[in-house]
Specification:
Helix content: 55-70%
Strand order of the largest sheet: 2-3-5-4
Shape: elongated
Largest sheet: 4 strands, mixed
Order of helices and strands: HHHEHEEEEHHHHHHEHHHHHH
Distance between the termini: 51 Å
Number of strands: 6
Radius of gyration: 33 Å
């Protein structure tokens, strides 16, 4: 559950950043890019919103299982507990299920009403008496629904526009945007991405529909859009055309104004490539190599590791402050200086997992007061500190025994 929660949060954050980058690029390049190219700028953000997973990649670093006294946070413990993560994920899934169910229910209800009020003209076109503007439904078998009161010229313009939607597979992207909004219902930028994709797809279809129209015909096309904007759609669950006033103004300006001069394509290609790289990079999750200490017992015994630790401290002339009574700085220094990184990783792993406790106790029981005994005493001090900080697996009785053992050893010095 914790991983799922982190993946959702990472997806919504990465998708939001990509959407903002695409929006800024679109603002600066809209006079140079066609609507179809502008629409492509938002696809990396849409894909990132939908990808609520990450791909782990191994990095050249080992993490160690066992108690960790070095990792601490100032957040309250309730925010770090697994139960809290489960509760948050369950709430996210519950809201998603309710919203998805409502969306599907409303869509099916509207489609049943539209089909009952429609008359088939052919396999692609149907006339509907309750619609105020054209629309296309269906992904695998798209069908164009036209208002029954359109004139012959308006029908031609509407068919040009809707067939452009079919050729571009806009319905697939619109449903993908709906899915992104449902998953990230708590993120208003996901809703903004959906609206932006719908608006630019309408601009692209307007451009395709009016490609070979004269100036007068473009003007009549714009009047048709204004007429549709002035009429309220009786089916509020449907969206797409005609859009809000700002969007309809931009569409009419694109129809009646000068054609967009695309010019060189390299700025748009570079921007899209950069967004794709950012999107793919956000899917990667660096994951250090995790090794279990139990798998090392047969390869490297505790006594052999203790011998290697003493030899490494002497060979690399690493200063050891007996007053600090901790092995962690010493082990970090060995990790940096040694060429045998595998053995150093194994040593650190066995130290952090508590498997060196037995050999540390044997050294202190033998009364060794040399460097070996000092290192063993420092290691047992670490285990005691972890126990006091509630991050060590030893029991209270064992902690008391270790404390007494350390006290007796220090009397020998």
């Amino acid at each position: 559950m914790t991983r799922l929660l982190l993946n959702i949060l990472q997806a919504t954050l990465s998708g939001s950043i990509l959407y903002i980058l695409a929006l800024v690029t679109d603002r600066f390049c809209r006079r140079r890019l066609s609507p179809s190219a502008r629409c492509c700028l938002y696809l990396p953000a849409l894909l990132r919103f939908l990808c609520i997973f990450t791909v782990p990649i191994r990095i050249n670093k080992t993490i160690y299982t066992g108690p960790s006294a070095a990792i601490r946070t100032y957040l309250p413990a309730v925010f770090l507990s697994e139960n809290t993560h489960i509760l948050v994920v369950c709430c996210l899934i519950a809201v998603f299920a309710v919203l998805a169910g409502k969306t599907i229910w409303d869509y099916r209800k509207c489609m049943r009403l539209i089909r009952k009020s429609s008359i088939d003209e052919d396999n692609l076109i149907r006339n509907c008496s309750i619609l105020r503007y054209p629309m296309t439904c269906g992904i695998t078998k798209p069908c164009v629904y036209l208002p029954a009161d359109l004139t012959r010229e308006e029908r031609e313009y509407a068919l040009r526009h809707e067939k452009a939607h079919v050729r571009r597979n806009d319905l697939l992207f619109r449903w993908a945007a709906v899915a992104a909004v449902l998953v990230h219902w708590f993120n208003p930028l996901a809703k903004g991405l959906q609206a932006r994709l719908e608006h630019i797809s309408e601009l692209a279809c307007d451009q395709a529909a009016a490609a070979d129209l004269t100036k007068q015909e473009r003007a009549r096309y714009g009047h048709m859009l204004l007429d549709m904007f002035s009429e309220q759609q009786p089916l509020p669950c449907l969206h797409g055309l005609p859009g809000n006033r700002k969007n309809i103004t931009e569409r009419i300006e694109a129809l009646t104004g000068p054609a967009v001069k695309t010019g060189k394509r390299w700025p748009g290609v570079c921007a899209l490539g950069f967004l794709l790289i950012v999107m793919l990079g956000s899917l990667l999750r660096p994951e250090p190599l995790t090794v279990s200490a139990k798998s090392l017992r047969s390869d490297s015994g505790e006594r052999a590791m203790m011998d290697w630790l003493v030899q490494a401290v002497q060979d690399y002339d690493i200063p050891f402050d007996t007053d600090e009574m901790t092995l962690r700085p010493l082990l970090d220094a060995i990790m940096e200086k040694t060429d045998n990184s595998d053995t150093a990783h194994h040593l650190m792993l066995m130290y952090r997992s508590g498997e060196l406790q037995g050999v540390f106790q044997d050294v202190l029981k033998s009364g060794d007061t040399t460097l070996r005994g000092q290192l063993a005493c420092a290691g047992l001090y670490d285990y005691l500190n972890w126990y006091l900080m509630d991050s060590s697996p030893i029991s209270q009785g064992m902690a008391e025994e270790l404390f007494e053992m350390i006290r007796e050893w220090r009397l020998l010095q």
